[in-house]
Amino acid sequence: MAETRYIGIDGGGTKTVCILGDVEGNILAESRGESSSVKSRPWEEVQRVLLTLIRDVLDQSGTDMSLLGGIFLGLAGSDRPEDRKRIGDWLQTELPEGVPITVHNDAVTALAAGTWGQKGIALISGTGSIAYGFDPATGGFVRVGGWGYLLGDEGSGFDLGRKALVAVMRAHDGRGEPTALTGLVLERWSLQHPGQLINTIYGQDNVRTAIADGSKLVMQAATDGDPIAVKLVEEAIQELEELVKTVITSMDKQPQIEVSDNQHITENKTPLVITGGLFSDHMFENRFMQTPLIQSGMFDVRLLERPPVIGAYLLALQEQGIELTEVMKQRIAGFVFLK
């Protein structure tokens, strides 16, 4: 008898990863595509990316669609009821009748990957930013941030990259202090003077991604001691610290917490999974780890080392009552993912 298969999908502001595995923790196929963020891409493109990846992992593994036992999608900007319903309703028309479909935010998949499906808090600082407290056992969650690049995403790659460009233009006008960011930005886009940035930036195919990529220049300048870049990094870290503070004070399991330098320290540390492009920079990660909130000792901080899509697969299994074993963890951890 053919085995039931499960699909996990993790879609952020830059890329989407899809894996298919069986009930025993064997990952059988992986596929990657463009962003599937419903808040920054046209709906038709999101549909195309998701359906292409699903069909690809089915083809790679030789799995008939009728064997699907569940699919869990963690997509950036998709935890609002209307977004979840839209995606779920559409997928039901593309998959066999009765296949369980769960749609949530990509912070949930990152958290599940970092805690092996247990409750905790995820902090993502990539192209966008969000903090998310989630308990898979009850489905209860608290989200803070993640409102997109126009309404929020403080402390994200886009936010940092945009502020860097603003600093360059202010310095060019004489309204701001000179900064090493000017030379780095001009070199990055092969320009002769800051005035050329207008056509270059506004002419990008994906402006949001292009600006977010500029956060790397901030890290470089801050590492070299540029005062403006250092200030921007400190501001970003403060924004991320505030996201976590707000989540932890909203979680029912820790109602007595006071966010201050003399915080009440709980007996059991709360898992805090940090991930995203900004945390891949060691200087940024180290500065975040030195904040009063993290130094309070109330968190078990984990830099996510497993691909977030693992969390989507784990949650697809959990949704069907399948318990994760140590053997399954070893199998999942041993899978070699594409870069």
Automatic annotation (TrEMBL):
The keyword Transferase applies. Keywords: Kinase, Transferase. One of its GO terms (molecular function) is kinase activity. InterPro entries: ATPase_BadF, ATPase_NBD, Euk-type_GlcNAc_Kinase. Signal peptide: none annotated. Pfam families: BcrAD_BadFG. Residues 7-316 form the ATPase BadF/BadG/BcrA/BcrD type domain. The keyword Kinase applies. It comes from the Bacteria. PANTHER family: N-ACETYL-D-GLUCOSAMINE KINASE. This is N-acetylglucosamine kinase.
